[in-house]
Amino acid sequence: MIVAQRKIIPEILEKLKYHKKILVLGCGTCVTVCLAGGEREVCIIASALRMASKLHGYSLDIEELTIERQCDNIFIEMAAEATERNDAVLSLGCGAGVQAVAERYPYKPVYAGLDTAFIGILEERGVWTEKCIACGECVLSDYGGICPVARCAKRLLNGPCGGSKEDRCEVSPDRECAWQLIYRRLKDIGQLDRLKNIAVPKSWNKSRDGGYRVIIRDDHRI
Amino acid sequence: MQIKDEIDKQEKSGEPAGTVFEPKIVAFCCHYCAYAAADLAGSMRIQYPANVRIIRTPCTGRLEVGYFLKAFENGADGVLVAGCLEGGCHFQEGNLLAKKRVNYTRKLLEEIGVEEDRLRMVNVSAAEARPLADNIIDMVKTIRKLGPNPLKG
Ligand code: SF4
Ligand code: SF4
């Protein structure tokens, strides 16, 4: 899922200060799970903004709404009336959600309340870790299901780098060395011989250097 | 009346009559400890200031950041969260969760521009009527020093 975290209140307030009526719009999917932009956070951020704006001498009039998914027009539609009656939207969706809402309501200012961080998982209570950078050509099958692109600090396809200490990455000792994990995992599943192959340089053609990516499924189009 | 008189005397000394600020404090009290302690205080005739409005909660772990903010938004001058002693939570770890949420909210209050000391968590057992009363008295003193909730200005 997409993992994000909230921006601090003064930063959000700075963006909203020229408006009067604000819709704080949450998203019920990824950002709810990572405790950044769901119904509960909408309530918290709305309260915080009401108070902070009052203390700054202008009182924002804030409406709260959370829709099922902000990156999907069918759900965004459900925020149409609320968007209409407010001057601007503070979206607590991920970057895709903010943009989808802005595209759907071209004459309404839409601001981002979150910093979208990565594609990752809930590692343990209150801890999320990055697992994938959406490189466009997945190599997980060759590395026992552990991604060297997202999780090795140097993105080495032929690792380790030689700097790892025990199972720690030399770049930051509070991170595990992805290559240690890959080695252990391949050993456990009886595929250590995979490491005898030297991986050729990865093609980044399907990554983001050519601008934003588009996937078209003709079989689903009319 | 003894305790009330005591803090009144202390707090009002040097102030012209009638100008002492009487804060409104919302106290979220856990059913299994602080609420029972408040009850016991009654039975033991231990007085605590009438500034607190007690709200019984099944466990402090049930409390959300949003509840604390709403209390301030609606004019509370202070919010006191009273849970079981650490290690003594009826639901194992509710009070530890509450402590984390209180600390998170204190940081958020700073971002908002409200003094973080307006929100405080204390831990008492069901038998600790006296410590509960003392905690309330101390909270009243703190809030008196801070003055009214700035949102009311
Ligand atoms: S190889 Fe690419 S697509 Fe696969 S997990 Fe790693 S970053 Fe994601
Ligand atoms: S120590 Fe491991 S994870 Fe860190 S850069 Fe080297 S190979 Fe990659």
Query: Uncertain regions of chain A: pLDDT < 50 for 5+ in a row?
Result: none
Q: Tell me the fraction of residues in β-strands of chain B, as a range.
A: 15-25%
> What is the average of the pLDDT values of chain A?
97
CA-based shape of chain A: elongated
| Euclidean distance between termini CA atoms of chain B | 31 Å
Strand order of the largest sheet of chain B: 2-1-3-4
Spans of chain B of at least 5 consecutive residues whose pLDDT stays below 50 are none
User: Over the alpha carbons, how many angstroms does the gyration radius of chain A reach?
Assistant: 22 Å
Helix content of chain A: 25-40%
Major sheet size, sense and barrel closure of chain A? 4 strands, parallel
Structural class category of chain A: alpha/beta
Radius of gyration of chain B, CA atoms, in whole angstroms: 15 Å
List the keywords.
heterodimer, A: 222 residues, alpha/beta, Rossmann fold, 4-stranded parallel β-sheet, 3-stranded antiparallel β-sheet, B: 153 residues, 5 helices, 4 strands, globular, binds iron/sulfur cluster
Description:
The complex is a heterodimer of chains A (222) and B (153). By secondary structure, chain A is α/β, with parallel strands linked by helices. Chain A has 2 domains: 2-118, Rossmann fold (3-Layer(aba) Sandwich); 136-201, no CATH class. Chain A contains 8 helices and 7 strands. Chain A has helices at residues 9-16, 30-33, 39-55, 73-76, 80-84, 95-104, 148-151, 178-188; strands at 2-6, 21-27, 61-67, 88-91, 110-112, 114-124, 127-132. With 153 residues, chain B is α/β, with parallel strands linked by helices. Helices cover 44% and strands 15% of the residues of chain B. In chain B, helix 2 (34-43) links the parallel strand 1 (25-30) and strand 2. The model of chain B has no long low-confidence stretch (mean pLDDT 92). The structure holds iron/sulfur cluster (SF4) (2 copies).
